[in-house]
User: Fold Hut operon positive regulatory protein from Clostridium beijerinckii.
Amino acid sequence: MESNSTRVAKIATKMAICDRHEEEHLKKVYAEKGIKVTAVNIGGNINSSIAKILESALVAAKRNELIREEHLHEGAVIGATRDAVIQVANRANGQNVGGKIGIARGGEHISVCIFLSIGLLHLDEVVIGIGHRALPL
Assistant:
């Protein structure tokens, strides 16, 4: 039996890897199941973009009402996003990246997934990172 945290992490991953058209469809599908989701595009040099990635995840989570505007909720999103960034940063160190952040909240679980394409001449490398936190309802 799959835990709720695993289910929410998988949904955040789906949001990070889907295209814009799929994103709108998935928002409706998951809303019917009581799961709030959002996604936001990111890009640039990974080293200089970390603060922007954290900010983008936080703003998206607030705008789409995945979290309340309070310290505990904001800290959970920032913490989960930092976990995901740490997982991708070493592979992308100093490189230009483009990709997406997917965020899902189901009950007390919130997951943040970062999916990136790393530009290396004509070879594109991909990397994915995920973070999770538990929040009071």
